[in-house]
Every structure is written in C-alpha cells, then in structure tokens.
Amino acid sequence: AKAEKDNEDLAVRMEQGFAKAEKDNEDLAVMVRQGFEETDEKNDKRFIKLEQGFIKLDQGQKKLEQGQEDIKLHMSNIAYKIDIIDLQKRIQKVEDIVLRKKK
C-alpha cells in the first residue's frame, strides 16, 4: 500500500512537473513571438527610413544632374560668345586693312 501511495505521489508530482514545464514552454513561446514582433517593428521603421533616404538621394541626384546640364548650357553659351567676340576682332582687323588700303 505504501509503494502504491508513493507511486501515486510520484505520478502526481510528475504530472505537476509536466504541467509546469508545458506552462514554461508556452511562456517562452510567447516571449519569443513578442521578441520577433518587436524586431519586425524595428526593422519596418528602419526600412521606412532607408526608403526615405533613397528617395532623398534620388532627388538630390536629379538636382545635381539638372545643375550639370545648366552648367553645360551656360558653358556652351560662353563658348558661343567667345567665338562671336573672336569673329568681331577678326572682322575689325580685316576692315582696318581694307580701310588702310583705300587711303
């Protein structure tokens, strides 16, 4: 009878231990899930910041490209003006020569 009682006590203790272990496993699973959810939220925020950063970089690059085009246009206008000035000087020299010969 004592052995039977001891076996019953052992069975009860084992059942309680298994129930506690199951509860601990469930608690651990909840904690792990929460950890993953928090990590997902943090990563989502980081990805949003990265996307915003890429948008700003893209906008900045477009501004730089437009500025570069503006500079090229300005430089080509300067080259054109220099050509005109050079041609004016050459015409003036030719006119001076022609006028000297007429005198």
What does this structure look like?
- The protein is mainly α and 103 residues long.
- Helix content is 98%, strand content 0%.
- It has one helix at residues 2-102.
- The longest helix is centred in the middle third of the chain and has 101 residues, at 2-102.
- It is rod-shaped.
- The N and C termini lie far apart (151 Å).
- 0% of the residues are buried.
- The model has no long low-confidence stretch (mean pLDDT 92).
Range of strand content = under 5%
Calculate the terminal CA-CA distance, rounded to whole Å. Answer: 151 Å
Q: Give the assembly state of these chains.
A: single chain
Q: Roughly what percent helix?
A: over 70%
Q: What does the average pLDDT come to?
A: 92
Taken from the alpha-carbon principal axes, the silhouette is rod-shaped
Order of helices and strands: H
Largest sheet, described in full? none
What is the alpha-carbon Rg in Å?
A: 44 Å
Unreliable stretches: none
Number of helices: 1
Number of strands: 0
| Secondary-structure class | mainly alpha
Topology:
Blueprint: H1 2-102
